[in-house]
Amino acid sequence: MTMVIEADKIATVHYTGTFPEGGVFDSSEGRDPLTFLVGHQQMVAGFEDEMLGAAVGEKREFTLTPERAYGERDDGAVQVVPREQFPEDMELEVGMVMAAETEQGPLKFNVAAVTEESVTVDFNHEMAGKTLRFAVEVVDIRDAAPEELSHGHVHGPGGHHH
């Protein structure tokens, strides 16, 4: 029986992600392929949904609307904070990506605007609100080891190293 991508399998893929209007935002070309544990929220849901049932050597192309990728932009995730909440000597520039320490761990944001009095920060994922196209080729599929399932991620080459 041919192994296919399904929950609790380890899938290894080469991929190229592009915007519908053109331009590559991410690709494994020239690098190691991407390895992930299927069904454990390591990938955006739409990516996994589109790859389910694919066998080694199979190529798929698909487009993900924002709700199947990183979600729509949330205007509530944009906040204006006083400039004094940042170190005085810190050079703040529009487009900088920084992290705020929260009880849930670091939360990334990007600097959307800077004035003498305030800094506008945006906690939306940089891909929020975007439609994404993917071209994916399945390189390998294997069963996940018990500790990979219990940890919820891949171990070894191309995966997570403890």
In short:
By secondary structure, the protein is mostly beta strands.
Write the SSE topology.
Layout: E1 9-18, E2 24-27, E3 34-37, H1 45-51, E4 59-64, E5 78-82, E6 97-102, E7 105-114, E8 118-122, E9 132-143, H2 146-151
Antiparallel strand pairs: 1-2, 1-3, 1-9, 4-9, 5-8, 6-7, 7-8
What does it look like?
The protein is mostly beta strands and 162 residues long. It has 2 domains: 9-70 and 127-151, Chitinase A, domain 3; 75-122, Thrombin, subunit H. The chain has helices spanning 45-51, 146-151, and strands spanning 9-18, 24-27, 34-37, 59-64, 78-82, 97-102, 105-114, 118-122, 132-143. The strands form 2 sheets. Strands 1, 2, 3, 4 and 9 form a 5-stranded antiparallel beta sheet that branches. A 4-stranded antiparallel beta sheet has the order 5-8-7-6, with no helix packed on it. Strand 6 and strand 7 (105-114) form a beta hairpin. The longest helix has 7 residues, at 45-51. It starts with 8 loop residues before the first strand and ends in an 11-residue tail after the last helix.
